[in-house]
Amino acid sequence: MDSIVIGGGMVGVATALALQERGRNVLLLDRRRPGQETSYGNAGIIQAEAVAPYAIPLAFDRLLRIAAGRAHDVAWNLRGMPSWLAPVLGYFWHSLPPNYRRIVPEYARMILRATDDHARLITAASADDLIARRGFIQAYRDAASLEAAVAEADAENRAFGVPSIALDAAGLAKAEPTLRVPMTGAIHFTSPWSCRDPGELVSRYARLFIERGGCIETANAQSLARSGGGWTVQTSAGTHDAPDVVVALGPWTPQFLAPLGYRIPMVLKRGYHLHLAGEAEPLQPFMDVANATVISPMNRGVRVLTGAELNRLDANSNLRQIRHATMVAKTLFPLGEAVESQPWRGARPCMPEMLPVIGPASRHQGLWFNFGHGHQGFTLGPTTAQMLADAMVGASPVAALAAFARY
Ligand SMILES: Cc1cc2nc3c(=O)[nH]c(=O)nc-3n(C[C@H](O)[C@H](O)[C@H](O)COP(=O)(O)OP(=O)(O)OC[C@H]3O[C@@H](n4cnc5c(N)ncnc54)[C@H](O)[C@@H]3O)c2cc1C
Q1: What is the pLDDT of residues 189-202, one digit of tens each?
Q2: Quick one: pLDDT at residue 228?
Q3: How far is the centre of ligand 1, averaged over its atoms, from the C-alpha of 148 (Å)?
Q4: Are residues 246 and 383 in the same domain?
Q5: Which domain holds residue 35?
Q6: Are the C-beta atoms of residues 9 and 38 closer than 8 Å to each other?
Q7: Where are the alpha helices (DSSP H) in 252-335?
Q8: How many domains does the chain contain in total?
Q9: What is the pTM of this model?
Q10: Between 20 and 30 A from 63 (CA), which of 246, 269, 315, 389?
Q11: Residues with a CB atom less than 6 Å from ligand 1
């Protein structure tokens, strides 16, 4: 075995494929089947429009609403505060304009190649039936917010060529004929793609990896130790040795790396979804921005998703946001009852610097990182996989990852 990839979400599976394409013999480890966790529960949008990562809002009135617990986009839990306060303060610092301005071009470079990087895999994995190419609508309820969004979309178009169409109320009603509530208008970003079953897409990529000779083991990775010139991974099923190990454990990365002395300040933005039976689903993923509610048509039903909740990874669910989002979605579209008894919960693995961590570990040779993809890991998995794999096999200099190899 040349390389072991630990974590079989979108990021880990894409990394295994990218290393395999570069001639490596790869073992992929996950405690579940690939694509059953965060990479399953997301909105399924391959977000070609998201050239600017989500910063913490700096407007005083928005911060006040968040602090007062009245915001829909960000909720927080006091008891969980010791786990999130320090990373969130770091996130706030990086959201300040001079710092944020330096992050956006690095982020945009990855986002702008994401659909191309998926396209190759979608074709090779015969997964086109899961993909729609109709864009992503972000809708607004007041003129001032719409005006600000139009200005921002124009700026992103000028700087990065992100295509979008500004819709007034009538244009939006035409673009989404089953929308039941008049809204002020929307931005229709036309370049994003969407997936009707994100977990299944990861699963098809994993099948491609196996068809090409890769090996997947379903086992819990318990520890990682240096051995000889390489690494030994202890799993619930046995041990594996390889010269190179990649950690791609999404939200579980900090706890896995702690015994090796790495303190990873991850902001775990928990999120929820619920599938509703749809009499008529939206034609493309739809976001009611004021209510931080995303409504995404899926094979299983219409998936309704929430904003972020700051809390410990494993703390009990708080259903306030998903109840609100479900109520909003049912008002907007003719949707029926939930098709499952409990909402799904996961966590966006966000880094304070808003860039994923990609590259060699700072303190151990042969240990490589690919985690912290935040709000856009489903989009960026294949792209950061290519970036990391190139550095691992020496096809591009490790120095090219300077902005990403931070821990
Ligand atoms: C509500 C919500 C909506 C989102 N919407 C979008 C979207 O529309 N577009 C987008 O691009 N992104 C979206 N995201 C973000 C995206 O889902 C994540 O960034 C991405 O899935 C992270 O992928 P990953 O492979 O790093 O992590 P994961 O998919 O979580 O994979 C980590 C894997 O590690 C495994 N694992 C954990 N511990 C161990 C262990 N000890 N041993 C073995 N295996 C282990 C888990 O089983 C899991 O399979 C959303 C996220 C949320 C929560």
Answers
A1: 999 999 999 999 99
A2: 87
A3: 31
A4: yes
A5: 3-41+199-265+352-401
A6: yes
A7: 253-257, 320-332
A8: 2
A9: 0.98
A10: 315
A11: 6-12, 29-32, 36-39, 41-45, 47, 220-221, 248-252, 256, 271, 273, 305, 346, 348-349, 371, 373-379
